[in-house]
Design goal:
Blueprint: H1 2-21, H2 31-50, H3 52-79, H4 96-101, H5 104-116, H6 119-135, H7 139-151, H8 153-158, H9 161-166, H10 169-178, H11 185-194, H12 197-218, H13 233-237, H14 253-261, H15 278-285, H16 294-298, H17 320-359, H18 365-372, H19 374-378, H20 384-399, H21 402-409, H22 418-428, H23 434-445, H24 450-458, H25 460-479
Helix pairs in contact: 1-25, 2-3, 2-12, 3-5, 3-11, 5-17, 6-7, 7-12, 10-12, 10-24, 11-12, 12-22, 12-25, 17-23, 18-20, 20-21, 20-22, 22-25
């Protein structure tokens, strides 16, 4: 056991090293922050595998989000009674669209309403500030890592549309990589019916912090204090060309990006008044980002009316039901985009398998990936024979999805060795696979502009690597405490 434990410990360091080797910018990797997060995650793994009430916290949060999805099933059942029952059973969701995508029609408007009333930006501010203080990461990224833990990738991205539009392309790519490693509250219960529930629930928070670690390794982004802010609906309404007009939160990404980059025209006056910059407008909206000019604070420069920055006029909120209608319409478009991308990616994988079959009937993407993943499997503290089986399951999960593998092992996993059972379950508990790439890229296409989408498309390889490394890190950390 000591030898396999040492191998497990070495594996964690090697997985981190792999992230650094494939980094876009090795010189700016924040090792201090990464070190803090690794220690924090190991402590969480110990806490959740050793104390039952620690797992009860995660289970309670998952149950709350599951109730939200159950409410969505009532609406889906009204329109498509033969697709899903009013409580998600009798019948159970008959397809991927009914189980994972149609609930977006409730989740997105609900979170948009929370944004409309100002609660979500307030929550992001304080939760993000606390997590950012601990992990030394930007506020929104830390909140997003928690948000996606239960909402899932597409839902978490969809409800963060305004923030995504305001952030620079590199930060959008960071969120895309993090989105490869989440789950959805609505299917956590399904996971626990197939594999040991205690390890499923342990994997959820570990993936949250490991996603931050791997994203910072693969694509480190420098975020200034001025950029580390939370967008609100007031930002969207400022995009209106006239002060009497309003722009809904679902305004196009191109328009929003233009506001972020282009100063507003100076008001007509006899004396030229400098136009407020985007930073000035942001400070006027978000009180916690206000900064006083140093010279003025010292009293060294007298305030002059000719140099005073013009304050943007307060914008009117869009009428609630108009806002809600736009939100629902945007959610519907998002479902269509994601569905199209998932169909295309899964079909392409099947086509590749057919072409490989012309060379050798036994040759598939799953087998090829299994060969590459054999060494990482050994580094999880497994013996060679078990590692080979583990690598096959890992490759199958990447090409298909976690449900396929869970369904295959559900009758035998109870007889697996405790360590193997733990690392396999934790590795499977995420959406990291080829079809998720289609979901995430498709989601971004419906939310942000072409520049951001192009950067994400160029880094699809890093997205897949991110999902694999996060799953390996989480499995390795849990494996330290289960033998």
């Amino acid at each position: 056991m000591i030898m396999y434990l040492a191998l497990n410990i070495a594996g964690i360091f090697i997985f981190v090293l792999l992230g650094w080797l494939f980094s876009h910018d090795k010189k700016h990797v924040a090792w201090g922050s990464i070190g803090i997060m690794i220690v924090l995650n190991i402590v969480i793994a110990w806490f959740l595998t050793s104390f039952s009430w620690g797992r009860a916290i995660v289970r309670g949060a998952a149950t709350g989000f599951n109730q939200l999805v159950t409410a969505a099933f009532k609406g889906i059942n009204f329109a498509f009674a033969n697709w899903v029952g009013p409580t998600g059973v009798n019948p159970a969701p008959v397809n991927f669209v009914a189980s994972a995508l149609l609930p977006i029609l409730l989740v997105v408007p609900m979170f948009d309403i929370l944004t409309y009333v100002g609660f979500l930006p307030w929550l992001i501010k304080w939760v993000g500030r606390g997590l950012s203080f601990i992990t030394r990461q930007p506020k929104f990224e830390t909140f997003f890592s928690v948000e996606m833990m239960f909402l899932g990738n597409t839902e978490a991205l969809a409800v963060s549309k305004l923030q995504l539009q305001r952030m620079k392309p590199a930060r959008n790519l960071t969120l895309a990589m993090m989105s490869m490693s989440c789950v959805t509250a609505s299917i956590i219960a399904s996971y626990t019916q197939l594999v040991p529930g205690e390890y499923v629930l342990t994997a959820v928070p570990l993936n949250c912090i490991n996603a931050l670690i791997v994203a910072n390794l693969l694509y480190p982004v420098q975020v200034s204090k001025e950029e580390d802010t939370i967008a609100t609906l007031a930002d969207a309404t400022e995009a209106a060309p006239d002060t009497n007009e309003t722009v809904p939160a679902s305004a196009s990404a191109q328009t929003t990006a233009a506001v972020a980059e282009t100063p507003a025209p100076a008001p007509a006056a006899a004396t030229a008044i400098p136009a407020p910059t985007f930073a000035d407008r942001l400070r006027a909206i978000l009180p916690w980002t206000k900064k006083t000019d140093q010279a003025a604070a010292d009293g060294s420069v007298a305030e002059d009316s000719s140099t005073k920055v013009a304050k943007p006029a307060k914008q009117k909120k869009e009428p609630f039901f108009s806002f809600l209608g736009d939100s629902i319409l945007g959610a519907g478009k998002l479902i269509l985009i994601i569905t199209a991308n998932v169909i295309a990616f899964v079909a392409l994988a099947a086509l590749i398998n057919k072409l490989l079959g012309l060379i050798n009937p036994q040759l598939t993407l799953e087998h090829i990936l299994g060969v590459f993943l054999y060494i990482p499997s050994l580094l999880l503290g497994l013996d060679p024979a078990t590692a080979w089986n583990m690598a096959g399951y890992m490759g199958m999960k990447l090409v298909t999805n976690e449900f396929v593998v869970m369904s295959e092992v559900t009758k035998t996993i109870a007889h697996f060795a405790p360590h193997y059972k733990a690392v396999l379950t934790v590795f499977l508990t995420s959406f990291a696979n080829f079809s998720t790439i289609g979901m995430v890229t498709g989601c971004f296409k419906g939310l942000v502009d072409k520049e951001k989408n192009d950067l994400i498309s160029k880094n699809v390889g890093r997205m897949l690597l991110s999902g694999i490394l996060v799953s390996l890190l989480s499995a390795g950390m849990v494996g330290l405490f289960v033998w």
